[in-house]
Amino acid sequence: MSATAERGVNALREQIDAPVASFFSSCVSCGLCADACIFFQETQDPQYTPIRKVELLRRVWENEYTLFGRVKSMVGFGNEVTEEDFTEAEKLVYDSCTMCGRCTMVCPVGNDITMMIRKMREGMSAAGHAPVELIGAAKRHTSGNSPMGDLSKAIEAQVKHAIADTGIEIEFDKPGVDYLVILSAQEIAEYPEVIGAMARIFEKAGVTWTISREAFEATNVGVQIGNRDVAKYLVTRVVEAAEKLKVTKVISPECGHAYQALRWEGPNLIGREYEFEVVHIIELLDQLRAEGKLKTSGKDEDKITFHDPCQINRRGGINKEPRRLLNMVAENFVETDDAGTMNWCCSAGGGVGANERAEDLKNAAFQLKKRQFEKVAPDKIVTMCAFCHHTLENALEDNDMDIEVAGLTEMMAEYLEDED
Amino acid sequence: MNNPNFDLLMFARGPLFDIALLVFVAGVLIRIVEILVLGRKKDFSKAKGNPVQQGIKTIFTRTLPRPGAIKANPITIVGGYVFHIGFFIAFLLFVPHIALIEELTGLSWPGVGRVIIESATVLAVIAGLALIYTRWRDPVRRKLTTWVDYLVLILSLLPLITGYVAVNKLFGDPTFMMALHILSVDVLMIVFPFTKLMHAFTFAMARYYNGSIQGRKGAES
Predict the structure, then answer these.
(1) Does A277 reach chain B within 8 Å, measured CB to CB?
(2) What distance in Å separates residue B213's CA from the closest CA in chain A?
(3) Strand order across the beta sheet in which A380-383 lies
């Protein structure tokens, strides 16, 4: 075995736990996960059957964690994972999986295949087989402040804009506030309006907040690439900033994997509980709504549909909140087929959007979304993930579809009641 | 008088059955322990839902397919149900089987009539053949299927087929057919811990973990 393959196998070995063993023991190769996968649906290529994508992890488990497999390995019938295996797995583990989690929902024996993809990626990256674009993003983010490069000047400028637009003071690193707002790079670079939107909503609701100059960016390429060290490093940055400011809550932005990384993986990456709570911006807005602190007036007359970001709804448990909010401001809200927990991915999550090699697959996968949108024929698609927003906007344009895409926070701010 | 069929029957239900039962019980226990000892790391994230409750719930709820799944995979899902239900009716509700289980464990329960047993058996065999067919014909399943999958399906059908033939004295020497029936069960028990037949036990663990992982996040499962 080559040295790199050995590193990969070592990393895979570390990922094996009781859930993984129970999943592989239970798989009867029924193939029902295939239909749940957007990439299989749109290509009908059996190689994209989700459970096949974690075959190398299965082999390491069988070879080393089952009595029968160990005996087979000892007598020379083991199925050792090689360098070539890692190379071949690249397009299955990174290009044709957005970690959307649909397969996890349909497996009749209950296998969490998506979680195993996350684990597979740890092995792939350790073996040196992560996509170059993601490695580049990780380098930019760990040595700077965002996967897109240095955004420190951009954030200052966008906050200044927001102050000018709203007339509301926004202070960096303000002590004594309740909430720390973190943004995604996509928001800072492409949808900075969300800063002003939050400022206006929070002002009305009496929420005190700040932005940290040390950790203003919430994305985490470490969880996409499958590198615990990178993921931990990036989470630690946010944790340290939040604990230094002594905020009680950190607001996870409209970004799918950031929520996953910060809310669910983060404490496990750093090996302890946080001294603060993480709340998703949409959870917070829904809470403010329930407390009567978020009031709107008027409604959008457009035909509006909602796109559920996989990591926030299916993998994150935020399903009813955005609908309650949207119903406050949308006169004509229509759901697409499969909306909610079983919604289809925007086609570019989980690092697929950054991976140039996956471009054709991504475009193929979007055709499913396209058909769903065509059926509803909305004027506007609202979502709660800046990367879904970005992906949908570009894909709609590429497919000559004239549909506006909007973030939910902005939409709520637009209809904010101005009584005083 | 020397009757080789009778000797074979005695061997199949005597020493071989004991060995098979031992391999089955010990093998299954080893496999389950092998999984559990791996454990899982403590989760430090603040739970939003109740992982234990949803884990247990998912063991049951995952028995039903999601809307639209049957239409997309009718043979696998309908065939899967019919095979499993038929198999367990024939296995657990046939009076002579209950008598054997009582002899081994002291537990017993009421059985059902021959018509139900035989219908269940026939339907389970047809379903099993359909499952073999879809593995062979469907590109997704064909690519996933190994020779062990076919072997396991065939080995699961043999007790049903041989039992039906022996009980109804359809052909062959009845003693010989009964010996074959019990032999097929012995073989099934012996291969059980080494193959995907293990899913009969581990599915509950897998569904529990799935439900608990999702449940912690307050997400559906």
Answers:
(1) yes
(2) 9
(3) A330-333, A300-307, A380-383, A404-407
